[in-house]
Design brief:
By secondary structure, the protein is mostly helical. The chain has 3 helices and no strands. Helices cover 31% and strands 0% of the residues. The N and C termini lie far apart (53 Å).
Length: 75
């Protein structure tokens, strides 16, 4: 299968494929991925917590206190 990758701005219900003649009358699987900035922010906060800490470490000052296991897991 021949892969075609492109980026475009959605301006109507049709998406233009440049050099479409190369894939005309061929079977194709089309995948559209749209980044939603609000969903991306939620995803980053929930799923990439460790990656965020690694890229932006937080330094703890001396004398900081921490929650006990029971306090942290209290509902």
């Amino acid at each position: 299968m021949y892969a075609v990758e492109f980026e475009t701005d959605i301006k109507s219900k049709y998406i233009e494929i440049k050099d479409y003649s190369k894939i005309l009358n061929k079977h194709a699987k089309v995948i559209v991925l749209v980044e939603d900035s609000e969903m991306h922010a939620v995803s980053t906060n929930q799923n990439d917590f460790i990656a965020t800490l690694l890229s932006q470490p937080r330094h703890i000052t001396q004398g900081s206190s921490f929650l006990s296991r029971e306090q942290a897991n209290a509902r």
